[in-house]
Specification:
The chain is α/β, with parallel strands linked by helices. The chain folds into 2 domains: 276 residues, Glycoside hydrolase, family 3, N-terminal domain (TIM Barrel, Alpha-Beta Barrel), CATH 3.20.20.300; 191 residues, Glycoside hydrolase family 3 C-terminal domain (Rossmann fold, 3-Layer(aba) Sandwich), CATH 3.40.50.1700. 37% of the residues lie in helices and 10% in strands. The strands form 4 sheets. A 6-stranded mixed β-sheet has the order 12-17-16-15-13-14, sandwiched between helices. Strands 4-3-2-1-11 form a 5-stranded parallel β-sheet. Strands 5-7-10 form a 3-stranded parallel β-sheet. Strand 15, helix 17 and strand 16 form a beta-alpha-beta unit.
């Protein structure tokens, strides 16, 4: 079958789907069940809903665990894709077709209320093949550019709309205080004021394009104490053991800023605060978030997070909802959770008033997304646009931090370079976790991105320079080292050394080899946090921290060759030892301790 024939057949299928769904919408509208034209209509709609219909609206299921018929039968309110959960093929057209089918099913339910679809587009629409992958938050914190943040918010929103998604589980306003935490790269900075200044324009950019945002994770995320991690984790999902006042001082300003920017939702955090899980803590989710901070939007639970707050599912559901959770992210146990909601309401464990309050917040979220308007069904767009790649390239160039330079940068474009190191030619390493799958991919050509080697070769080959195969022919050595891709839980470590368990296997081999050539060495680190380098820094003539730059590796060479200046500054303290990994928590002694580099360090030409 020819390619054009396939396209025509696919277009016909979409057209039939749209016609079918329009009939379904008309039938539902005739019953008046989705006739929500304004916010004032929502209260009446809730009065008309059955308990079962309300229970369905409080459920968020994973796409892989629910059928189209289940969406109709159970009045399911929301669907999500976890990391790496995609339709097959992973194209905008397939995404849109899937979401349209789900919404047709929702419109055919007894309530006729559409679904809302959420994804973790945490550095671009990172589940989608060939999407633009921006630097992770730690790099954007180094860039510290609010205007750039708004542009990234807009660009990411456009690539989400291209696949039919309305809701983003971002931004994270975590402020990691111990860089051994596996989610450090999801933090803009250890300094909450820098975090707060960057989160607002990102939210504004997303909202301006119609994408709903989720500020996460409320609260204490990044402040958990080493060795208190849940299950086998060292830090992740652990316990905040400082006083509540200290925790709030280090967290609240970012949430106040996000609420002021009209963030659509807030996600509760896995961690505990002084032994009490946040998902079951009414003093935090209601008394603080609702009453003191005046947040009016929706509170969503994290992935299966309620399962740790009480012994049985019935107790977990009641405690979470009564504490202030409005939507339960229950990817696989969604049906049991649905039944638990009904059980708890019927037995008086959840009041009708609290149930209706949670349902209303879900319906308001959908109203804000425009899901009750005509034209509910989506059309596919384009990801990986030149516009978004240009913004990502700028972000990479602004995120680089120059930490040592003994007169070898900027490089001449006709220089001869011997390039070595395990991070030198791998886009998957550049992207890190939450890219195409939850934990990331060691794929050299991930999303058709530009590796460091690709970028160097492009500049050199056009200007009389060369990547040489013999170090004896080189003017200098470029050494690229770093970390393996990882995400939450699996990213916790007790060893930040270059040969630690999450560091790239050949880091030390490449470091030692580079020293044997008697040539100037430019070292580039590609990692989600600072790694220990005190034993090697003296051997390097220049050192650049590139963080996790994503797919646009040419942003690195823009700065190395002097087309753009170094602008980045360290958003985190760089330790000399593993024991200093949490020094940002102990600011009383911070200035009395010698670190490798201090927060805010960064050289220019």
């Amino acid at each position: 079958m020819r390619k054009n024939d396939i396209k025509r057949i696919f277009s016909l299928m979409i057209a039939l789907l749209i016609l079918s769904s329009c009939d379904s919408m008309n039938q539902i509208n005739d019953r008046g069940r989705i006739n929500i034209q304004s916010l004032s209509d929502i209260d009446q709609a809730i009065q008309d809903m059955t308990l079962e219909e309300k229970a369905g609206q409080l459920i968020q299921a994973e796409r892989s665990s629910i059928s189209i018929s289940d969406i109709t039968k159970y009045n399911i309110g929301s669907i999500l894709s976890g990391g790496g959960s995609t339709p097959n093929p992973n194209t905008p057209e397939a995404w849109v077709s899937m979401i349209n089918q789900m919404n047709v099913a929702a419109l055919q339910s007894s309530s006729g209320i559409p679904i809302i679809y959420g994804v973790d587009a945490v550095h671009g629409n990172n589940n989608v093949k060939n999407a633009t992958i921006f630097p992770h938050n730690i790099g954007l914190g180094a860039a510290n550019d609010p205007e750039l943040m708004k542009a990234i918010g807009i660009a990411t929103a456009k690539e989400m709309l291209a696949v039919g998604v309305d809701w983003n589980f971002a931004p994270a306003v975590s402020s990691a205080q111990d860089i051994r935490w596996g989610r450090t790269y999801e933090s803009y900075s250890e300094n909450i004021q820098r975090v707060a200044s960057l989160v607002v324009p990102y939210i504004e950019g997303q909202l301006s394009e119609g994408i709903l945002t989720t500020t996460k994770h409320f609260i204490g995320d990044g402040y958990t104490t080493f060795l208190t991690g849940e299950d086998d984790n060292l830090i992740d999902r652990g316990d905040v053991t400082m006083t509540k006042e200290q925790m709030l001082d280090g967290n609240l300003s970012a949430y106040i800023a996000a609420i002021g920017a009209n963030t659509s939702a807030i996600m509760a955090s896995f961690n505990s605060v002084n032994g009490v899980k946040v998902h079951g803590d009414k003093s935090l989710l209601t008394d603080l978030l609702r009453d003191e901070l005046q947040f009016k939007g929706l509170v969503v639970s994290d992935w299966e997070a309620i399962h740790k707050i009480a012994p049985t599912l019935n107790e977990q559901v009641a405690l979470a909802i009564n504490s202030g959770v409005d939507l339960l992210m229950e990817p696989y146990k969604w049906k049991d959770t649905y039944n638990a909601i009904i059980y708890n309401v019927n037995n008086g464990n959840i009041s009708q008033e609290r149930l209706d309050e949670a349902v209303k917040r879900n319906l308001v979220l959908k109203f804000e997304a425009g899901l009750f308007e005509d034209g509910l069904l989506k059309e596919a767009g384009i990801v990986g646009t030149q516009e978004s790649k240009k913004i990502a390239r700028e972000a990479v160039s602004k995120s680089l931090v120059l930490l040592k330079n003994e007169n070898i940068l900027p490089l001449e474009k006709n220089v001869k370079i011997y390039l070595i190191g395990p991070a030198s030619d791998n886009v998957g390493i550049q992207c890190g976790g939450w890219t195409f799958s939850w934990q990331g991919e060691m794929d050299p050509n991930l999303n058709n991105g530009i590796s460091l080697k690709d970028a160097l070769n492009t500049v050199l080959s056009s200007n009389g320079g060369e990547l040489v195969s013999n170090p004896n022919d080189a003017d200098l050595i470029v050494l690229a080292i770093g970390e393996k891709p990882y995400a939450e839980m699996h990213g916790d470590t007790d060893d930040l050394s270059l040969d630690g368990p999450l560091s790239l296997t050949d880091n030390i081999k490449a470091v030692e080899l580079a020293q044997t050539f008697n040539k100037p060495i430019l070292t580039i680190m590609i990692a989600g946090r600072p790694l220990l380098i005190s034993d090697y820094l003296d051997h390097w003539d220049a050192f650049v921290m590139a963080w996790l730059p994503g797919t646009e590796g040419n942003g690195i060479t823009d700065v190395l060759f002097g087309d753009k200046p170094f602008q980045g500054t360290l958003p985190f303290t760089w330790p000399l030892t593993n024991e200093q990994a949490s020094d940002s928590m102990n600011m009383d002694n911070y200035n009395k301790i010698e670190h490798q580099f201090k927060y805010g360090d960064g050289l220019t030409y």
